[in-house]
Amino acid sequence: MVKKQLIMEKALELFAKQGFEATSVQQITDRCGISKGAFYLSFKSKDELIIALIDQFMEEIFANIDHLVRNKKNEENLLFDFYYVSFQSFGQHTDFANILMKEYTQSLNEQLILKMHNYDKLINSTILLMIDRVYGEKVDQTKYDLLYCIKGFMRMYSELFLYQGFPLDVEALCRSLVEKTDLLAQGMTLPFLQKEHMDLSIFQIQGDVTKEQMVSMIDEKVKELEDSIQKESLLLLQEQLQKQTFNPAIIKGLLENIRNHPHCKWIAYLLGRYFNL
């Protein structure tokens, strides 16, 4: 395992048990069996490590949701699948999701707050796309209220199993939330929110990313991966960025090769948007 990944994995175990503040760099290096110097070659500080873990966690969740909403061929069951992927993603990372939500609500760390705010804007844009696909013009006047209702459902029901240890039946929960969302979509007539109330500007790394930045991001990601089909596919996609010789079907296949790797979801998302696939 690459040292940076080892540090992130062991730090995640400690953060989930103790919280961010209670975990020291010394404890992390002891758990990894490395020196502090080796730690600082990978991360400048504990805060930088925390932000890297948050990025990995949020990027994976967002990439899963966005891929579903943009690529599902029809709208049937799209709302159910959206809820299912969202709760399944949190369920797979329950310990870290728990500590992250607690830390975020109590944090004075400006970088953490900004990160979470930016991811929130990204998720807003994807949920609005889903609302347009599922309900169309029927909710033109109320879709921003519906957006916040959907996010409220996700947050409130997440707290049940994150904080209270409530047994989670994902399928039953998602069926229930689809029914509730449909009732709201069909019954709301008095909108409170309008487009001008919404901050829908997209996270800078999505909107402003350049070809050169993506080439650099792939260079960094390749260093983290052992020899694999994902590493080979990333290198071919990097070549495509520079030479543009592959047809769309090949590019799509290469993206599918990397999309399900937990450390490649974000770059797959960025490349998919860049190649319009």
Structure description:
The chain folds into three domains: 1-44, Orthogonal Bundle (Arc Repressor Mutant, subunit A), CATH 1.10.10; 51-203, Tetracycline Repressor, domain 2 (Orthogonal Bundle), CATH 1.10.357; 209-274, no CATH class. With 277 residues, the chain is an all-alpha fold. It is globular, with a radius of gyration of 20 Å. Helix 4 runs antiparallel to helix 5, helix 4 runs parallel beside helix 7 and helix 5 (78-92) crosses helix 9 (170-187). Mean pLDDT is 85; it is low at 202-207. The chain has helices spanning 3-18, 25-32, 36-42, 46-71, 78-92, 94-106, 110-135, 143-163, 170-187, 204-207, 211-224, 229-243, 248-259, 265-274. The two termini are 31 Å apart. The chain is built from 14 helices and no strands. Pfam families: TetR_N. It comes from Bacillus timonensis. Residues 1-61 form the HTH tetR-type domain.
Entry summary:
This protein is an all-alpha fold. The protein folds into three domains: 1-44, Homeodomain-like (Arc Repressor Mutant, subunit A, Orthogonal Bundle); 51-203, Orthogonal Bundle (Tetracycline Repressor, domain 2); 209-274, no CATH class.
